[in-house]
Write a structure and sequence with these properties.
The complex is a heterodimer of chains A (310) and B (420).
Chain A (H helix, E strand, L loop, with lengths): L15 H19 L12 E6 L5 H12 L3 E6 L11 H9 L5 E6 L4 H6 L5 E7 L5 H15 L6 E5 L6 H12 L3 E5 L15 E3 L2 H7 L2 E4 L15 H8 L3 H5 L6 E3 L12 H4 L6 H19 L8
Parallel strand pairs in A: 1-2, 1-3, 3-4, 5-6, 5-8, 6-7, 8-9
Helix pairs in contact in A: 1-11, 2-11, 5-6, 5-11
Chain B lengths: L1 E9 L10 E7 L2 E6 L8 E4 L3 E5 L1 E6 L12 H10 L2 E6 L10 H10 L6 E6 L13 H6 L4 E2 L9 H10 L7 E3 L12 E2 L2 H6 L3 E2 L1 H18 L3 E4 L4 H12 L4 E5 L1 H5 L21 H12 L5 E2 L8 H4 L16 H9 L5 H8 L1 H6 L14 E11 L18 E10 L2 E4 L2
Parallel strand pairs in B: 1-4, 1-5, 6-7, 7-8, 8-9, 10-13, 11-12, 13-14, 14-15
Antiparallel strand pairs in B: 1-2, 2-3, 5-16, 16-17, 17-18
Helix pairs in contact in B: 4-6, 6-7, 7-9
The chains are: A alpha/beta (310), B alpha/beta (420).
Chain lengths: 310, 420
């Protein structure tokens, strides 16, 4: 089994078959993660650098666990503790790491397109762990994987993505992934947080969160990314929570049950209330668990043609 | 020095020889005679199959970075690039350090080009040090040879300053040059806002960030009855606004870059910073409107917006890379390739030569007897393929590509500068 791409830069570039391959591989690794010894030696000859130019706890931890459970050697590199603060360029930074015989790079970067730029200049496989407001492909994959666990085939299902669409690479990767799997996507949130031309991607826009929830089978509630906003886009967190936050009362008023996802970290009481985040329809912790299996699958598949470990 | 240009087709609407293929004899910098099979003694004879001759071209907006940033482009390398691109005059933006905000910098820049075949015409800044606060000494700079005034890549945002500047230059019939961009609406944007930017996850610069500024400046022009040249228009709506302002009789002119005529925002799919320019490369619909604007005369000139950047400034993440494209040497070929199915060669040449001459009062002569030699030689029968540039740097996506149309050289007074 292999993918049609050398790097995982974005879901935009994957074929539907690639996504299915990643899911099938992740199914196997998820079984591995249930065992007493949660480790396979598939990548024991591989060294992977996790290069994070933006702060991250959960994504980096998830990648690190995935890599270690495949038996890879792992080196973590973060911008604050690095020569980036001394003015070194991205190409120099990465080439210096690669010169130490590193086989694969997992990179998070604040600039959209940075992994594409890097792919032009280095030979190693690159996994995008989030670039600017563009894509976060492993998150898009693990979200769809978590939905698939509950629903089986996603074809014909409707997914609402709620919140700050404009600053969300999670939204972008979700849209690309879900559409490739045949799902219909609605985006919902304040008009100032929805890109003007988003409908060109084939999604529909619904400014009322409640109306969006009424139309969907699954809701992916996004984090409000205050740190990404350069311009004032809404008045206050209080007003946002009042009019766009997802709460239990809203869910109870729907005449159906919907699956709730959130990519984390959660702003409890802002985009989602605790009784929804921790409620019976929430798969938020499943997402975290699936994240490791998905990342094991992606790292494994990009490491070259190897036999699937037993 | 006597130069005989043999068998050149004249492309110059202001000449009696327009569209005729003739011999042109130049002695002591003056055209002595024009005719067929001239029998004269010349030191140099220029002959080339399919050769055309026109009034010398003017680049109305380019960056040379001396003083201050010679590692990007010095005056010497800039002028060599201009000559290779067929330009006999270049108007350079005040994007230097110190900025062109005083008589002494105007004089310094003019002096550097004194002995060169290409004339250098500094554009003075509108505000002092391009700070956007107080007016620079435009009268004094004008008296010392500044050809026009602009805050260059930091277009004037303050509406009151813009109004005062338009009034101030009326005393000497000066022209202000603005790049149309509202700094607030374009804040954080990296490319044209549209379907492409959305799908690429890149913050967009909406067309309205450009057109609002064009609209504002047109209204200020209407109020002041001054003279304004908008350079680098990229949006369809800007063309329409200027079309209407011209119909209203306002003294407004504008220019477009070769790359806006040639490219649309699909090229950004590569995230390649070579396409990072300001104003941004917009949609195919906008590109078509620019060509239409050039065709109906709404757009007067082709300005290179030559903006050289060293390798390190471009080999970065798109967001962190410097903007601009190194265009001057390929201006004609890029523009000609983009338009050769819709525009005649006469039209392109008029946009490169005659129109700028009139708008900025350069006093270049038509191709006729008695003229001071200031001509460009070119052909549309051959292609250009550049792998190296005369410019100091190489930030141009057309390098290595074959483009129809070739600059053969320039003639200025006694000097002939020919491309190999």
């Amino acid at each position: 089994m292999s993918l049609s791409v050398k790097h995982l830069l974005g879901i935009k570039e994957l074929q539907q078959q690639d996504i299915e391959t990643i899911f099938k591989t992740a199914d196997n690794f998820k079984q591995v993660l249930q065992r007493p010894i949660k480790k396979v030696p598939a990548l024991r000859d591989t060294t992977i650098a996790n290069i994070f130019f933006e702060n991250s706890t959960r994504t980096r931890t998830s990648f690190e666990l995935a890599e270690k459970r495949l038996g890879a050697d792992v080196v973590n590199f973060s911008a604050s503790a690095s020569s980036v603060s001394k003015g070194e360029t991205l190409i120099d930074t990465v080439n210096n790491i690669l010169a130490m015989k590193v086989d694969m790079v997992v990179m998070r970067h604040a600039a959209s397109g940075a992994p594409w730029f890097l792919a032009q200049h280095i030979d190693a496989s690159i996994i995008n762990a989030g670039d600017g407001v563009n894509e976060h492909p492993t998150q898009g994959l693990l979200d769809a994987f978590s939905m698939r666990e509950k629903f089986g085939d996603l074809s014909g299902k409707t997914v609402a993505i709620v919140g700050d669409i404009m600053h969300s690479r999670v939204a972008m990767s979700n849209i690309y992934c879900l559409q490739k799997l045949g799902a219909k996507v609605i985006v919902s949130g304040p008009p100032t947080l929805i890109p003007k031309h988003i409908e060109s991607m084939g999604v529909s826009v619904e400014y009322s969160v409640k109306k969006a929830l009424q139309q969907c089978d699954i809701a992916n509630i996004l984090r409000i990314q205050l740190e990404r906003q350069q311009k004032p886009l809404f008045s206050s967190l209080r007003e946002y929570a009042l009019f766009y936050g997802v709460n239990k009362q809203m869910l109870d008023s729907l005449n159906k049950e919907i699956l709730i996802l959130h990519p984390g970290p959660i702003n409890r009481g802002v985009e989602i209330d605790s009784d929804v985040a921790d409620g019976k329809h929430s798969v938020i912790l499943d997402q975290v668990e699936n994240g490791v299996a998905i990342r094991m699958a992606v790292v494994y598949l990009l490491s070259g043609n190897r036999e699937m470990p037993e | 020095m006597a130069i005989l240009i043999r068998g050149a087709k004249v492309i110059d609407e202001s000449s009696a020889y327009h569209l005729q293929t003739v011999d042109i004899f130049i002695e002591n910098g003056i055209v002595q005679s024009i005719g067929h099979s001239l029998n004269v003694k010349a030191d140099t004879i220029v002959e080339h199959p399919g050769m055309c001759i026109s009034m010398g071209w003017t680049d109305v907006f380019a960056d040379y970075r001396e003083p201050g940033f010679e590692h990007k482009e010095s005056i010497a390398t800039g002028l060599a690039s201009a000559a290779a691109g067929g330009f006999t005059s270049v108007m350079i933006a005040p994007n230097t350090h110190p900025t062109i905000s005083s008589k002494s910098v105007v004089q310094y820049i003019r002096k550097q080009a004194e002995a060169n075949a290409v004339s250098l015409c500094p554009i003075g800044s509108v505000s002092h040090n391009i700070e956007g606060k107080n007016l620079a000494e435009m009268l004094d700079m004008h008296a010392n040879g500044a050809i026009a005034f602009s805050d260059g890549w930091k277009p004037i945002q303050n509406v009151s300053l813009m109004l005062k500047a338009l009034e101030y230059v009326k005393s000497f019939e000066g022209t202000l040059i603005q790049i149309p961009m509202d700094a607030n609406l374009s804040l954080g944007g990296l490319m044209h806002e549209g379907a492409e930017s959305t799908q690429l996850g890149m913050p967009g610069i909406p067309a309205i960030a450009e057109t609002l500024q064009v609209h504002r400046d047109i209204e200020l022009l209407r109020y002041t009855n001054s003279r304004l040249h908008i350079t680098g228009i990229a949006a369809a709506e800007s063309v329409e606004l200027i079309r209407r302002a011209k119909a209203d009789g306002l003294k407004i002119t504008c220019s477009v870059t070769p790359y806006h005529l040639s490219l649309n925002d699909e090229v950004l799919r590569s995230y390649d910073s070579v396409y990072k320019v300001m104003p941004p490369i917009r949609s195919e619909k906008d590109r078509q409107a620019l060509i239409e604007g050039l065709k109906d005369g709404t757009i007067d000139c082709i300005a290179s917006h030559h903006r050289p950047q060293e390798w390190d400034a471009k080999a970065k993440e798109f967001e962190y890379a410097s903007d601009g494209m190194n265009v001057q040497e390929l201006s004609f070929a890029i523009a000609h390739n983009a338009t050769n199915e819709t525009l005649t060669i006469e039209h392109i040449i008029k946009s490169l030569a005659n129109n700028a001459n009139t708008i900025f009062g350069l006093n270049k002569d038509a191709v006729q007897e008695g003229a001071c030699a200031d001509f460009t030689l070119f052909t549309v029968m051959e292609s250009t393929q550049l792998n190296e540039m005369k410019s100091r740097v190489r930030n141009n996506p057309f390098l290595g590509k074959s483009l129809l149309g070739k600059v053969l050289g320039i003639v200025k007074c006694d000097t002939l500068v020919m491309n190999n």
